[in-house]
Amino acid sequence: MDAEVFDIGNTDIAWCPGCGNFPILKILKHTLAELKIEPTNLVLVSGIGQAAKISHYFRTNVFNGLHGRALPAATAIKAANPTLTVIAESGDGDMYGEGGNHFVHTIRRNPDITNIVHNNMVYGLTKGQASPTSQVGFKTPVQVDGVFLEPFNPLAVAIALDAGFVARAFAGDAEQTGQILKKAVKHKSYALVDILQPCISFNRLNTYQWFEENCYYLEESHDPSDRNQAFKKATETRKLPLGIFYINSKKHSFEENIGALKQDKRPLYERELNIKQLSVLIEKFKSTN
Amino acid sequence: MSDKLLSQNTDSASIVLCGQAGMGIQTVEYILTRILKLAGYNVFATKEYMSRIRGGTNSTQIRVSSSPVRAVVNRIDILIPLDKDAIQHVQKRVSPGMTILTETENTGEVSKWCGCTCIEIPFTKIAAGLGDKIYSNIVAVGVVAGLCGIDLQLMNSYIREYFSKKSDDIVHKNLEAAKAGHKLGCDLVNSGKVSFAIKPDAGIKDQVLLSGSEAVALGAIAGGCNFISAYPMSPSTSVLVFLAKHAKDFGIIAEQAEDEIAAMNMVIGAWYAGARAMVTTSGGGFALMTEGLSLAGMLEMPVVIHLGQRPGPATGLPTRTEQADLELALYAGHGEFPRIIFAPGKIEDAFYLTQKAFNLADKYQVPAFILTDQYFLDSYYNITSLDLSDIKIEKHFIKTQKDYKRYELTDDGISPRGIPGFGEGLVVVDSDEHDTEGHITEDLDLRTTMVNKRLKKTESIKSEVIPPELVGPDDYKTLIVCWGSTYNVVSEAVRNLSRGDISFLHFRQVYPLHSKTADYLKRADKTIIIESNATGQFSKLIKLYTGIEVDEKILKYNGLSFTVEEVMESLRNILD
Fold first, then answer.
1. Which of A39, A101, A278 minimises the CB distance to B426?
2. Which of A224, B206, B445, B541 has the smallest set of CB atoms within 10 Å of its CB?
C-alpha cells in the first residue's frame, strides 16, 4: 500500500516550517501503509493543539474532539466497533495536562488503541507556556522564574499502571520511530508512544541538537517484559532512553473484557434490539422481579 | 381517640415505616409492595432518606388502595417507628386518626402523642426469639400483610422466593418471622382493634410494578441503547445499575467512567462509531458534561442524557429532590445549538419518552434530555403494562459513498450521518468550525452558513413537539400548569378539590415549548404554576416563549416532593 492514500491533497498546513510535527505525520502515514490499514478502516482521534491538527492532514476517518478528551472518545469508538483501527493522537499538554485523568484511567481500562503523544515540552498553540513535561528551569512568559514543578513522566506512570505497551521515540529518527509505531499499532491492547519533538518557535532549550545529544536508544540487552527494569529506565532523566521500554502482552484488552463484545463480535451498529427479550424482562415486573 | 386503624370512609391506607439506614426499611418496602400488588391491591411507594449508609432517620411511605394511587401524601394511617427518633421525624404528620405500631423498648414511650392509637408489637422480641434481631423488619412485613388480609401462602411463597439465594436456615427464620407477624396482624383485625376495608381486585395482580428509574432504564433498552457510560451520582445511578445488570442479555456496554467528562465524551464517541448511547447523571455531574454537550452540538452528534435532579447548588442535598436544573439543561454548553428536553410525569412517560429520545436524538443529531428527579426515580406504583407493539428503533445513519461529506448542506439542516467503517466514505467530525467535509475552517461566511444549518434543525424538531396534556374540563376558569414529576401529585390534589372549573396542564416535553401553550394559558381567568424550585424556572420559560406571565406560583424547594395535601392547601389559599 502506498502512503499517499492518506494524503489529503492541497491544504494549508498550520504548522511552522521545520516543526517536528511534519516528520511524525510522514512517518505515521508510511507506517499505516506498511501495515495495509485502509483509510476507511482507520479512525484518527485527536484533541486540541498544534499536534492535534494532524487529523486534518490525514485522509481517513477523523474525530477531532475536545482538548484533553481524545482518549475517552477513542475508547468508545473502538468498543462500539472493534473492527476499526483507532489511534488517539495529540500533544503533551492535551494528553498529560488537560487529559491527565483520562490518560491514567485509559491505561487501566486498556482498550486496543494506539496513543501517540507529540511531546515537545511546551505549549505551542497558546504561545509558549510550560507544559506538564517542561523541564525544571524552563522560562516562559508565565513561568517567569522558570518551571519548578516536577515534570510529568508519562512512561513511568504508564509502566506503574502496567500498560500494555510503552515506548518513547524521537521525531528526528524516521527509521526507528516507524519501527516503534508499527509494533505499537499491532499491539493488541493500549499502546503509548511518546514522541519527542522540537518546537522551533517556543522551545529554544529542547532543540533538534539537544535531543540528538541527550537521547540514546535502549541497549539490546533491555528486556521489555521486565517491568522493574523498564521502570528504572523510565526514571532516567539525565539522558533520555528511546525505544520500547515495556510490553505486557498477557493482559486482556477492554474489548476482550466486555461481556457484550465477548458473546457477539459484530459492531454495535449491526445489532438489533431483541424485543422478545424485553417483553420477558417486563413480564418479570408483573410477578416478582 | 379512634380505635380504628383506617378511617371508614376511605378506600386507601398510608403506611409509613421510619427508622435508621441499615434497619432494613428498604427490604420491607420492596417485599410489601410486591406482595400487596400480587394480592390485588394498588400500591404506591416512595422514600426519603439521608445521605448516609447507616444511622440517621429515613422513611418510606406505602399506600394501599382499591383504586390507583400514584402520589405521596402527608397523611399517615399506620406508623411503624423502628427507633426513638422516628416519631420525632414525622412529628408534623401526626394526626388523631393515626395508629402507631410500637415496641416501647426501641421507640420509647409514644403514648404522649395523644390522639393516636398505640399498639404494642414485639417486633424485636419475636426476632430475638428466632436468634437475631435482624429479622424484626420481616416481622413488620408480616404484621402489615396480616392487617391487609393477605393470604398467608401468598406471603410465604414470596418470602421464600425473595430469600431463595440464602441458606435454608435463613429462609426458614425469615418465614417464621413473617408468619409470627402475620398472625399478630390478623389478630388485630379479628379483635376489632383495627379495620381494613380496602377491596382487592384480582386484575391488579398481573399489572407491572415499576419505579421511575426502572422505567427510564427499560425505555433506554426499548430505544436500542447499547452503550451507557456514567459516573455514579445520586439519584441517577440506579439507571446505570439496571443497564449493567441486564447488559449481557441486551448486548449493552455499561462502563463506569473515571469522571463525567469521560462519560460524556465516551458517549459521543460511541454514537460516532454507530452505537446508541446515553449518560445518566445529576446536576453536579452534568455540569462537568457541559463541555461535551457543546461538542455534541458542534459535531451534530446524537446523545441521550438522563438528568436526575437533586437540590443544588454544588453538592446540595444529595439524596433529596428538586426541579431546579431545567435552566441548566436548557442553557448548558457554550455556543448555540438545538436540543430536546423531556420531563416524564407518569411512570409510563419515562419509558416511552426515553425510548423516543434515542430516535429523536438520532434523527435530528442533537442532544435529547430526560429530566427526572429523586422523587420520581425512587417512587413506584403499578401500571397496566408497557405496550411494545409500537416500539420502533429508528436508525438514521447511512452507508456512505466514496464522495461522502458529513456536513453536506441540506434544506432542513440535517446532513445524512455516516459512521466510520460502513461504506466507502470517510467520516470526519471536528470540534472546530468546519466545512462540509468536516475539516477545520476559518472561512467566516461558511461559519455563518454552518451556524444557520445547525439551528435550522430546530424548525423540524418543533414540528413534532409532544403536546401538553390537559386534565379536566375544556372550559376551565383556573388553569394549573406543571411539568415533570409533579403530574400525579397535582392530579390527585385537583381531583380531591372536586371543583368543576379547574383543569391542569402538564408538560412532558418542556423544550421546545409546544406552540399551543399560549392558547391554553389565554383561555384561563387565572393561571397557577406548580414547581419544585425557588424561582419558577418553567414559568420563566413560558414567559420567554409566549410573553405570558403566569398569575400565581406555588413553589417548594426544601428537598422534599410536594404532597397531595400541600398542593390542595396552596390551591385553596389562592382560590378561596
1. A39
2. B445
